Task: inverse folding
């Protein structure tokens, strides 16, 4: 596991962009963390790293936003998803393996995540602009990310 301290929103976005540069195009990135942790900020940076600069926001009501950059990106927000029927209804299973899948509120679909997914946990700290990142599944790139 890689543990990083993000001192700012910009750092978090830059971290997302760095991780984007490591992707081959079919990975699942499962994000964990509370309201306002920085999941969308991280996703915005990751998308920017893939050449997607417009319209990245939490797809809370839509559940999924699709973007096209270097790879297709499917950005899910599972905040309102409570069971496998809901997931099926939004087409989650059809998207698997067709692009980069990046998921907010992965806590809600833990059982349905791909076993080899990259896990990104973001924790708030007592400092308003600081976040702790724990990244699982990218240990081989620790020197690039730290
Ligand atoms: N180090 C940091 N990294 C990321 N965001 C930060 C940081 N410091 C402050 N912030 C702020 O915290 C907020 C994070 O909001 P964001 O929408 O990314 O959270 P979220 O995890 O997607 O929340 P939600 O569950 O509501 O979708 C933004 O206003 C951002 O500017
Ligand atoms: Mg969000």
Result:
């Amino acid at each position: 596991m890689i543990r990083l301290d993000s001192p700012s929103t910009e750092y978090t976005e830059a971290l997302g962009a760095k991780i984007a540069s490591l992707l081959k195009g079919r990975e699942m990135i499962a994000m964990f963390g509370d309201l306002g942790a920085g999941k969308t900020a991280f996703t915005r940076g990751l998308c920017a790293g893939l050449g997607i600069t417009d319209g990245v926001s939490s797809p809370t009501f839509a559940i999924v936003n699709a973007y096209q950059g270097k790879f297709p990106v499917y950005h899910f927000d599972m905040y309102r998803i409570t069971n496998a029927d809901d997931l099926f209804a939004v087409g989650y299973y059809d998207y698997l393996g067709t692009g980069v899948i990046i998921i907010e509120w992965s806590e809600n679909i833990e059982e349905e995540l791909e076993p080899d997914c990259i896990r990104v946990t973001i924790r708030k700290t007592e400092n308003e602009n600081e976040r702790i990142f724990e990244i699982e599944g990218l240990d081989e790139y620790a020197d690039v990310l730290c």
